[in-house]
């Protein structure tokens, strides 16, 4: 049997890091950097009190990554405060999503997590108001092509990304968590109604714990760009371990997956966190998720073959001869889930033969 990549071994059994030699650490750091998990690895080593047991060279790499992550947290907090100021007069509730939510709510998944933009969720009927307020405070649209504007505003679940003209920071303003043309339609009103306040920040909200897991799941398993696939799976692992300490969380997770039409992404999230990261999940939750969201045997076998390869870092120590094919097929699948066939064909034709070159 082939041993799992060192990065998976470290994430599953952090205590094993104490037995890694210098060559192991050389490979591990390369894999973690490729997966955007090097600062997270620092957090794991720190949490388990292993610094004295690892080579000095590894400590130095982890220290640099940690310093960068600390600066990143400060920058995120500052940027969120500026977004709050920009939208304060509008009275629109700001629901933070993904990385920014983890940072502001001080969730375990925020430790060492690096990300490039701030995602917020607002009511669809408030999009014009939010966009205007952001523009007055220095954010500007990044996609000026008429087709791209139509693509985002008509079919997607978000405005075209906006970049601040001085700080060059990017905000994604969402009104839903999946495209309007997707086959599932999680009701944004249900997400907003269950949102939770961020302690110490009266104007900020995050998704409720179960909804946060489901959003993370649908983001990972409906998206075809898996460069950060393992990092996003680690997000799910952190959320499940943190919120799962409350027994009431697990039945509520199933209940919300049904209410939000996200039973299939939940099934994949539980299956692959358990298989790849050894996340502890109650057996009855696994059974209910399988009953509600498990695909047929043939499709599940294919998904296993694809996701168990594509979720690993694109590093020579983690890939095999089929990894590239797996990523390509999942990219095609993601587009298939994004739009109905005719609209998708029209979109791909336009992007391939009509659209101008990307602006960024």
Structure explained in plain terms:
The protein starts with 5 loop residues before the first helix and ends in a 7-residue tail after the last helix. Helix content is 57%, strand content 8%. It is globular. The model has no long low-confidence stretch (mean pLDDT 93). A 7-stranded mixed sheet has the order 3-4-5-2-1-7-6. Helix 2 runs parallel beside helix 4 (56-88) and helix 9 (209-221) runs antiparallel to helix 10 (229-243). It has one domain. It has 360 residues and is of the alpha/beta class. Strand 6 (196-198) and strand 7 form a beta hairpin. InterPro entries: NTP_transf_5 (IPR039498).
Intertermini distance: 44 Å
General form: globular
Rg for CA atoms: 21 Å
Helix content: 55-70%
Stretches where pLDDT falls below 50 for ≥5 residues?
none
Average pLDDT, rounded to a whole number, is: 93
Largest sheet: 7 strands, mixed
List key phrases describing it.
360 residues; alpha/beta; seven-stranded mixed sheet; 16 helices; 57% helix
Briefly, what is this?
Helix content is 57%, strand content 8%.
List the helices and strands and how they pair.
Blueprint: H1 6-12, H2 22-34, H3 38-47, H4 56-88, E1 94-97, H5 98-104, E2 117-121, H6 127-136, E3 139-141, H7 146-155, E4 162-164, E5 170-174, H8 188-193, E6 196-198, E7 201-206, H9 209-221, H10 229-243, H11 249-259, H12 263-277, H13 283-293, H14 297-310, H15 323-338, H16 341-353
Parallel strand pairs: 1-7, 2-5
Antiparallel strand pairs: 1-2, 3-4, 4-5, 6-7
Helix pairs in contact: 2-4, 3-4, 9-10, 9-11, 9-12, 10-12, 11-13, 12-13, 14-15
